[in-house]
Amino acid sequence: MSSLERHTYDVVVIGAGGAGLRAAIEAREQGQRTAIICKSLFGKAHTVMAEGGIAASMGNVNSKDSWQVHFCDSLRGGKFLNNPRMVELHAKEAPDRVWELETYGALFDRTPDGRISQRNFGGHEYPRLAHVGDRTGLELIRTLQQKIVSLQQEDLKEFGDAEARIKVFAELTITELVKDGDAIAGAFGYYRESGNFVLFEAPAIIMATGGIGKSFKVTSNSWEYTGDGHALALRAGANLINMEFVQFHPTGMIWPPSVKGILVTESVRGDGGILTNSEGKRFMFDYVPDVFRSQYAKSEAEGDRWYDDQENNKRPPELLPRDEVARAINSEVKAGRGTPHGGVYLDVSSRMTPEVIRKKLPAMYQQFLELADVDITATPFEVGPTCHYVMGGVEVDADTEGTAVPGLFACGEVSGGMHGANRLGGNSLSDLIVFGRRAGTGAAAYVVGLGDKRPAVSESDLDAAGKAALAPFHADAASGPDGGATPAPENPYTVHTELQQTMSNLVGIIRREGELSEALEELKSLRVRAQRAAVEGHRQFNPGWHLALDLRNMLDVSECIAKSALERHESRGGHTREDFPTMDPNWRGVNLVCHLSPGGDGVELTHKPVPTIRPDLLALFDRSELDKYMTAPELAVLDDPKAGSEVAGGQA
Amino acid sequence: MSYNASFKVWRGDNDKGDLNDYTVEVNEGEVLLDVIHRLQATQVPDLAVRWNCKAGKCGSCSAEVNGKPSLLCMTRMNTFVPEETVTVTPLRTFPVIRDLVTDVSFNYEKARQIPAFAPPKGVAPGEYRMAQVDVERSQEFRKCIECFLCQDVCHVVRDHDDNKKSFSGPRFLIRAAELDMHPLDAMTDRATFARDEQGIGLCNITKCCTEVCPEHIKITDNAIIPMKERVVDRRYDPLVWLGSKIGIRHD
């Protein structure tokens, strides 16, 4: 490919949300020439949608908070399936990462004594979320964006070139990772604007592409969330873990149809909002699972008192972790106690004055007024579950974010392990900055370690990548697996819609064996049809073409989700099986790992033990709480360390 | 309730293009971006449009609707009568890339010219103390979603490409005001910068920017006018003038 645009960098960060930008800042500050690749414009990444806040145990509102409490909350939220080392690093480092944002210019809401204010959130024992009203994600993105601009201003002064050491490539999509032997050598993609191809030669690539929500019909995620990083890493030889765990946020907007899926922040509940069914009943009191019973209020009166006096009262069950609330709403609707459009009511109007609502939840107030014509200060509104987050992702080393592929790193939503079976609200933004920074450090150290021995890109790989990217323009002539008797070309938008229906109907909140098998069959046929996805017109800013290319990623990811969901015979966090409705301690120690089959033409699934929880970390929990999660042999070892040498690892 | 509505959508690139007529189904509760997506999915798969969040939070889907700078995702279809033909065109102030997508790099260049937040010396991370009432003034401007509708509507640059060099536009005047009002920003001459480098004097406060802001930021009243006053204070206050002549620093 002689006319190909080529760039050489030390580190290339794919993805420009919170994790990608933080990683890029770190790599650049450690002296590496760094490129940032955004699928959209700089500063538009999906992180802007995050509302509630950044979880960090600064203890500004309740001084009892500590990293240990944050650690326990996160592990409990993840149903003890988390990578414990990641949870530990996250809990320990989040406060420093938040304070660092202030030195970049972030302006968080304040406590009366001038420190960063912290709010309550589901699953967090103390007020822990640093926030800016309900637009915390926007503040995070803008702050990191402006920090990058300031680094560019430094470079302009020093080198006369603002982009000497850090450059943003906007509206650029990567379609292939290029390797030299086992190691990463670069990334190949196209500019959305021109359709022209571009190659980044770089020994280290940090994947920070976010999630997979666009594989589902109702989602809070934007169009970018097509699982690109998951699929690119998988095809490059990395492992994906925990892909069965998909978080459905309990409160998405459901009416009118055009806003279906858009998030209603959890702060609405954290600040006093309650959930009621069509009979006016505050139903969450009926859905407190045993493992949480001691931490939640037993009566409405106690729950209400908690907002003013958290020392002497337990929190209301509206603030249970997201998976619990989503399942409860699902059950109420199924039982015929749903709202006209198939959800439940969320009410702040009877709980706070209009002035307080507008002050505490300004963006929510505007969002409902302008998008749905609903005044949340005057009336309850309908909400229902929406696909929000994937806990699963690329398996990484907790300290460096390195993957099984030398030179490939991953951080943020695209990585797996940190959140286990279910993520707590507020733990995502903190995840981005804690592990974004660590990935930047990890990649920088890797590049330094390579010295002059950099992997090289082969021309034949580039030709193949180019051909694959242009295939949708020649789909008419393409022969399918039937060897020539190819049926008519497919409309990529239609294939995408059917994929979303398959995933929502068959691999949604409540899963069953038969439906999961059916989903895998349908995915197989959709994959064949996607190969015939044809596009018209030109390469300049052609959304049909872009979708046709993204489809392959969505199909890879969907297959991993469905396969893992079929394999896990229990219900835990973001994975609920109707045919296996309870949590099984034998499965707690098992990570399901997806990787490319040896032939490279499909996904294989294997079992792998969840990393062991260190004894000093395990000691942070009450022994009685561990009873609920661990197997008898694991507990026996706990009680008598000499009784056995293996603590972790289930038998399933 | 569904009906078929008439649309005129501009298609082309920076050299040539024109309005095309389309009839597209509209359903209850939809916004204009839904209709553009339906048009894309059923009639013109290569119609170029930028969008991301579809909730008025990312500022990607900026365009002009019947001539008014708007976010497509925040334009509810029930604000039009069913018989009305709705015209959708790209932002006029920026070069067209294709169809409804424009080249907004002007804004990123201007962003890079404003000196960044200067952290206070001697205050360690974690030791920042600010009163809520003080941060709120800057927080209003940090609500900006960078949709650039204010940049598009501003008549200083809308039909005057020559002014683009010397004028940073409302979006970056609020950035200057935000930093100026930041309780801990260590840089002291942001008003001078706004005058000399951002061309704040070119703004004659017609408030068009405030009118189109989807975040309802009071751009003119709360940012530009106070910044103009600061410029005037520094430059024309006789005491400051005298002080500067006899060597008294006044920040």
What does it look like?
The complex is a heterodimer of chains A (652) and B (251). Chain A is α/β, with parallel strands linked by helices and 652 residues long. Chain A contains 19 helices and 23 strands. In chain A, helix 1 (18-29) links the parallel strand 2 (11-14) and strand 3 (34-37). The model of chain A is unreliable at 646-652 (pLDDT under 50). Chain B is of the alpha+beta class and 251 residues long. Chain B has helices spanning 32-42, 105-113, 132-142, 149-153, 155-158, 170-181, 190-196, 208-212, 219-236, 238-245, and strands at residues 3-12, 17-26, 62-65, 68-71, 85-89, 96-98, 101-102. A five-stranded mixed β-sheet of chain B has the order 2-1-5-3-4. A two-stranded antiparallel ribbon of chain B has the order 6-7. Chain B is elongated and about 70 Å long. Chain B starts with a strand and ends in a 6-residue tail after the last helix. The interface between A and B is large, with 70 and 59 residues.
Task: Offer a few descriptive terms.
heterodimer, A: 652 residues, alpha/beta, five-stranded parallel beta sheet, five-stranded mixed beta sheet, globular, B: 251 residues, alpha+beta
